[in-house]
Amino acid sequence: MNMDNMDMATTTAAMDATMTGMGTAAAATTSAAMSMSMGGGCKISMLWNWYTVNSCFISSTWKVSSEGIFALSCIGVILLVIALELVRRIQREYDRHIIRHAAVLTSCVEESTQIGARKLAEDGSGSVSPVPNRIGGLNAASSRFARFLRPFNVRPTMIQQMVRGLLYMVQFGAAYFVMLLAMYYNGYIIICILIGAFLGFTLFGYDNLAPGGSHQETGTSCC
Hints:
Layout: H1 2-39, E1 56-57, E2 59-63, H2 67-125, H3 133-149, H4 158-182, H5 187-204
Antiparallel strand pairs: 1-2
C-alpha cells in the first residue's frame, strides 16, 4: 500500500513537471513569436546604440540586411541633411528675389510720379515750385522714421506666396524626417546627421551674414 502511494505521488509530480515545462516552453514560444511579429526581427532601441546589421529605421521596409546597405543608408542621411540646407538656401534666394523685384517696381513708380509732377509744374508755371525747407525736412524726417519702424514691407503675390509655402513645406517635412531618424538613438546615424549639417551649412550657408556682421536667422529648426 505504501509502495502504491509512492508510485502515485511520483507519477503525479512527473506529470506536474511535464505540464509546467510544456507551459513554460509554450509561453516562451508565444513571446518569441510576438516579438518577431511586432519587430520583424529589427534591432530597435530607445537607448544609445551602435546597431548596424538588422537595424531598422522609420519602417520595417527600411531594414539593414548588410554592412553595405548600412553604409548606403548613412550616405543617404548625409545627403538628406545637405539637401535640407539647399532648400533653405533656395528659399532665402527666392525671398531676396521678391524683395528686389518689389524694390524695382517701387522705385519705378516713384520716379514716374516725380517726372509727372515735374512736367505738370513746368506746364503750369514754367518752373518747378520749390518746396519749403521746413516742410521738406519734416517729410524727410517722417519718411526716415517710418523706414526705421518698418524698413520695407513687401507683400508677395498669391503665386509667390504659394511657392514660398511649397519650399517651407519641403524643408519642414525633411527636418521632421531627420528628427525621426535621430530618435532611433543610433550613434552612426546621429553622426551622419551632424556631418550633413556641417557640409550643408558650409556649402549653402555663407549668405547668412548681414552687411553689419549680424547673423540672419532663416529657415526652420530640426526639432
